[in-house]
Specification:
16 helices, Luciferase, domain 3, seven-stranded mixed sheet, 3 domains, GMP Synthetase, Chain A, domain 3, 542 residues, 24 strands, binds adenosine monophosphate, alpha/beta
Length: 542
């Protein structure tokens, strides 16, 4: 017997229809690439997205076409996304921090037909456009007055192009399983791999994200997504914010402490999301300027491990709750969030930080398990490490073109490549990337734990740990440190600070001070490059 309920396809543009109808006047505020702060709302965004769809269709773009975007978080970028999706296209976000050759490779692999680009990135596009075989049109997200001179043909200013449409367009009726978005993962080895989101997965992901025990957002929130739309789907905020009618504050190209603080303050932002490096800059700015955060209630921090000291500072000095989150581009991207279950809600002080330092637990829609080398399931005891595997309706079942097949188990689980343990309450803690974990005497040492501890030292700006070959133990940890500007600290002082806070055999064998630690295009520590830099390094003899 079948249920007798309606077949209402889960399509992304329905989110925007809803936002325009129920929350039409809610503001979307942007620090524009041209400079000024500009204001629009969900009703206007919907109308302009319809125009984008109409205009794309008139230019001959068709269902399934991949359309690139190389842009900051702005209202125009949102309009491009929804317009592309609404005419059946696939938005393909490109990370401008990649090398131009990588962007060319990715665009050719995805066969992008058109490209929406911010003024900031025009120099890149001038250089790479001729190498992209499928590219038919470049739309610059600006108006005629700001249009730069260009050697490219078939290039147009967004506002002029849009003015030729009236928005009298009906969203395409699509299968909810149709592709709507694409994002390549920034793998540190091998070619990038394309993750392809569907309308259904994006809608379900947004419904998962907004829940009280996940991001916990609603119509009275003002949300500042610092996490870029080109990084892991902006953690779903481009769908989840309109789904509940929250005000959106878009930071454009400026993510320095002063710029973020200004938006948090003037727009009365209640919730924000970003990687730890962004918060490091903000906290430094607040400290220097003696500013407070009276409106901000919580920040979602993920992308790489959030240091305990950061969670503590937000809590104790600014009365802001940190929600540590873990996810992956392949997971749309949310996997776990560190909100408090009743089992731990009453904790305070250090005991609360112990839980908040973990990456959190999985909401409905994300199943997870940890396994050993023979795919044997490991217990949830808060100690035993294993490879973290996941499955769910917003998790990839394959990469575009069939790449990376070995990450998908035949029984439907996706191998994240992360190593983690899970405690009896379901809280997961990432201990490493499988390829970074240090194997010492047959046991594993978590580089993330050591890094977290080291950055807690008041003179340390950033820390990274890599394994160095050792004749007896296989590998031993080397701690690499960037000091805070103007501070002095010795190896002995760092080791004394760490002593007693971790197992003796986890203590780094040496500390090396450097000017800078290399990062990937998504802001993670680039351990492959760091290991290369220390290729000839030898540990001191005991
Ligand atoms: P990306 O797809 O670029 O977001 O990268 C996903 C990877 O980032 C994960 O597989 C983790 O290795 C890492 N990651 C994301 N969030 C966290 C976190 N909160 N703590 C530690 N690692 C994280």
């Amino acid at each position: 017997m079948q249920g007798l309920m309606q077949d209402w396809p889960l399509l992304c543009h329905k989110i925007l229809d809803y936002a325009a109808q129920q929350h039409g006047r809610r503001e979307i505020v942007t620090r524009s690439v041209e400079g000024p702060i500009v204001r629009t709302n969900y009703a206007e965004i919907r109308l302009r997205s319809l125009k984008v769809a109409q205009r794309l269709a008139r230019d001959g773009f068709r269902e399934g076409d991949r359309i690139g975007t190389l842009a900051w978080n702005t209202a125009r970028h949102l309009e491009a996304w929804y317009g592309i999706m609404g005419m059946g296209g696939v938005y393909h976000t490109l990370n401008p921090r990649l090398f131009p050759e990588q962007i060319v490779w990715i665009m050719n692999h995805a066969e992008d037909q058109a490209l929406f680009v911010d003024l900031t990135f025009m120099p890149i596009v001038e250089k790479i456009a001729p190498a992209i075989r499928s590219l038919k049109k470049v739309i610059v997200l600006t108006d005629a007055a700001h249009m730069p001179a260009s050697a490219l043909t078939n290039i147009v200013a967004f506002e002029e192009w849009l003015a030729e449409a009236d928005g009298d367009y009906a969203w395409r009726e699509l299968d909810e399983k149709a592709a709507c978005g694409m994002c390549y993962t920034s793998g540190t080895t091998g070619d990038p791999k394309g993750v392809v989101y569907s309308h259904r997965s994006n809608v379900l992901h947004a419904m998962i994200a907004v829940q009280k025990d996940a991001m916990g957002i609603g119509s009275t929130d003002a949300i500042l997504p610092v996490v870029p739309m080109f990084h892991a789907n902006a953690w779903g905020l481009a769908q989840s914010a309109p789904m509940i009618g929250a005000k959106l504050v878009m930071p454009g190209g400026r993510m320095d402490g002063a710029a973020i603080y200004e938006l948090l303050d003037t727009e009365k932002v209640t919730m924000s999301a970003a990687v730890p490096t962004v918060w490091l800059m903000l906290l430094q700015y607040l400290e220097e300027q003696g500013k407070k955060l009276p409106h901000l209630q919580k920040v979602i921090i993920g992308g790489s491990a959030c240091p305990r000291s950061m969670t503590q500072k937000f809590r104790d000095d600014y009365d802001v709750e940190v929600i540590h989150a873990w996810g992956m581009t392949e997971m749309s991207p949310l996997g776990t969030l560190g909100t408090m279950k009743p089992e731990v809600a009453g904790l305070s002080g250090d005991a609360q930080l112990d839980i908040k330092q973990k990456q959190g637990y999985a909401p409905f829609g994300v199943e997870m398990k940890i396994t050993g080398d023979t795919n044997d399931e490991k217990p949830w005891d808060g100690r035993t490490f294993g490879r973290l595997k996941v499955r769910g309706p917003a998790i990839a079942r394959a990469y575009y073109g069939g790449a990376g097949k070995d990450q998908f188990d035949p029984d439907g689980w996706f191998d994240t490549g992360d190593v983690a343990h899970v405690d009896a309450n379901g809280y997961m803690q990432i201990t490493d990337r499988a390829k970074d974990v240090i194997k010492s005497g047959g046991e594993w040492i978590s580089t993330i734990d050591l890094e977290n501890l080291a950055v807690g030292h008041p003179d340390v700006a950033e820390a990274a740990v890599i394994g160095i070959a050792h004749p007896k133990w296989d590998e031993r940890p080397l701690l690499v440190i960037v000091k805070k500007p103007g501070r002095e600290v010795t190896k002995e002082q760092i080791l004394a600070f760490m002593d007693g806070k971790i197992a003796k055999w986890w203590m780094p064998d040496d500390v090396s001070f450097v000017e800078a630690i290399p990062h990937t295009a998504t802001g993670k520590i680039q351990k492959t490059t760091l290991r290369d830099q220390f290729r000839d390094y030898r540990l001191p003899s005991p």
